[in-house]
Structure formats: structure tokens, C-alpha cells
Amino acid sequence: MTSAIPHNRRLLPVLGVVLTLVLSGCTESSQDGTLVFEAEPSVTAPVLPGPSGAEAPTPEGVAAALEPLLSDEGLRGTLGVAVHDAATGELLFGQNNTTTLTPGSTNKVAVAAAVLATRGPDYRIPTRVVAGSQPGQVVIIGAGDPTLSIDGEGYYPGAASLADLAEQVKKALGDQPVTSVVLDGGAFTGPGLAPGVDMADIAAGWGANTTALMTDGGRIDPSGSGTGGQRHDTATPRYKDPGHAAAEKFAELLGAPTFIETGIADPGATELGVVHSPPMRRLVEETVLSSDNVVSDMLIRQVALARGLPGSFEDGTVAVAAVFNDLGIPGEQIAMVDGSGLSYDNRISAGVLSSLFAKAAGPDHPELRPLFAALPVAGYTGTLDSRYGHEQTAAGAGVVRAKTGTLSKVTALAGSVMSADGRELTFALLLNDRGNAFEAAHGLDRLAAALATCGCR
Length: 457
What we know:
Blueprint lengths: L6 H18 L2 E2 L6 E2 L22 H8 L11 E8 L5 E5 L4 E2 L5 H12 L7 E6 L5 E5 L20 H12 L6 E5 L14 H6 L37 H13 L5 E3 L8 E6 L3 H10 L3 H14 L6 H14 L7 E2 L11 E3 H12 L8 H5 L25 E8 L2 E9 L5 E9 L4 H17 L4
Parallel strand pairs: 7-8, 8-9
Antiparallel strand pairs: 1-2, 3-4, 3-15, 5-12, 6-7, 6-10, 11-12, 13-14, 14-15
Organism: Phytomonospora endophytica
Protein name: D-alanyl-D-alanine carboxypeptidase/D-alanyl-D-alanine-endopeptidase (Penicillin-binding protein 4)
Keywords: Carboxypeptidase, Hydrolase, Protease
């Protein structure tokens, strides 16, 4: 049986959008002085802990709300649960909360936080072209922008384009025709796929070989709508070598031979053109809201590069753990092998994920606040758009904001929820070795909805 979502619950996402616009404001065009609202503004002010004077939840209150639901048939398996008070960071409830479990796509939240902490919300990834060693030779240097489009009409809104880059190169070279294109993909090292990834998922198009240069997340067909609403990352054919395919497209735009050489650019070579990705906060929104596997696998390598390490999966996972230690969150409870969460070898604890959101809600790390703007809203957006319509979970619609995670025998949910008293709670629910996926997701949704209905005192 399903029930309609109460009208007052449906108002909450709209109010959230209005608040976000007020908090993040708009930008002034440097060209004509007009005010332009961002298409998808990000939260830049502290996350409010709730109405002034709201009583703090207690561990006993949270336990009373959750414990009757933990025997749900859908939750059989190994369940890790952590709930924190966003205002104080206090752990209110824990069950296997320090046990490292396979997180599925909730892994993306940890990667998103690490890249925001290292690169910063406004960092843009460059794609550069420099002069080669021979007359008419150019070198295109990939630095890990997964959103780069061919002609500005690609999969990701606001992405830079190879066409723009080609026009810059042509202008810089003047009458000199381009005789050859060299691909420098040396920013990334190591294997393009992480251990523990089911190759059937790659063959189906859920992920791609990670290369420093690619267009449209490696998609062969970039058609699709922009970030937000009901769009999810889906299985779609990807290039086996996205870097080579992108370099070939670039050569075509230059009118050059499409035989692509590989090499490393001379650090002192003359720059002929450069384009930049959308800001990091937008890439975080993309990977978290739509659960984009390729973007997240690129971002974990950005964390490594920002920490002065080689851009490999292995170095990225080391870097993420170090960033969490710097934030005061136990990095030893993180054992990643990729950014997307596609690998079954990833491990993280529920306590780490919940405390991460509590940290992001506090006053000391404003660089982490775009995490909240990126989270799907229960019943409305991203990977939660079709959930929380059941009568047992409807109370969470509009007030639960969380990242989902799903693999075979893995179901997860991590994010924040506003309690009935207006107190912001953060939570993480990781279920491994579970049975029916739909029953498991419903069981986790019931737990989050219970937090929405309780004062937890």
C-alpha cells in the first residue's frame, strides 16, 4: 500500500531550493554587470542545526526509534548503523559502527569530501594544448576532466569543449597547419580499472577505463539530459580507450591526421590553448546526485594529485585516508580501492560516513558544505526520486537527504535527516550479505524515516 506524501512535506524541497539561492546568492557577470543565478547553486553557508532552543536528541531516544525496526526481514545480514547529532557531532546510536563494510556507491561521499577538502569547491580541472617538438605538432594534455565535451553539446551541462580548444589552437598557430597530435595522459598512472570490479559491470557500461583525457565520461553516445531532477547515471556503451578516442576527435576538429602518438609534453612548451571543467562543487554534485561512477573514479585521482602523489587509484585511496585523518575522522576505518564504489574490495565504516556529514555541517570546514547540496532528496531527486512513497517511509520524503549504494548483496544509505523537532541528524546505514535488494532498501528507508518522525529525546 502506498500513500500520498503530505503537502507540507512536499514544500520542504522547494523551501530548500529557495534557502540555497539565498545562501549561495548569484554571480555578477564580468561582461555586462548583470546578475546571473547559477543553474544549480551550492550551499556555501553553514548547515543550520535546527530552530533555536530545540532540545538535543538523546542516545536513548534514538535507540527507541530505531531498535524496533532492526529486526526487519529486509535487514538480515551484517548491518552497520551510526547516527550523529549534526549540531554537536555526538554519536547518538551505533551498531557495528566501527566495522568496515562494503559501501557500494556511498563510497562516493567519502571521495567527494576528500576532493573538496584538497582541491577546494571552486577548483577547475584544465585541459591544455602545447606546442610539440616538430613544426605543426601539438600535444593535448589531459588532467582528469571527465566532463569534457566534443562540441559543447555533450552529456554534462556547463562542460568545456574540444571544439573551443581547437579554435584556440588554430588561432595561436595562425597559418601553420597542424601536422600531428600527441596525447599526454601522464597525469594518471597505474591501471585504469580498480581491483574487485565486476567486469560484467564494465562491459555493460556502468564504468569505464580511467584515462586522464576523455569526453562525456567515456560515453560513445553523449546524448542525455543535464544534472538534476530524475537523471541517474545509467549503463551505456563506453570507449575501451577514452583518451585515444578523445584525441582522435580533437585531431578531426583541427583537420589533422587522426593517427595519435603518445608522449609527455615538454614542461617549457608554449601553451596554445586551455579549457577548464566546471568547478569542483559541480563535479561533486554530479557524482553524488546522479551516482556517476566515472566522475568519481576521476575525482579520487584528483585527491592524490592534490596531495602531491601520482594519479593512480592506489595513491588516491591512500590520499583519501590521509585527508580523513586530517579532518579528525579515523582514516584507518577506510580501505578504498576506487572512487565509484563499484569494487567489492572497498571498505568503510558507518561511523566514518555519519561523522563526515556531522563535520560538514559544522562551522570549521565550509569547504565540505557542497556535500549537502549534492545529496538526493527523498522522493524527489537523483537516486532517491522513486523512494519514500510507501506509507511506512513517507515521513522521510523531503526531509531525508542521502546517497544510496547498491551492489549484489550490498545496500547502503548515508546522509542527513531533519527530525520532528527540527534537529539535523546525520546517519549511515551499511548492509552487507543481505537478501532481497528491494526489501533491504525499504528496510533502510524505514530507519531513516523513523529518525524524521522522532524527537529522539
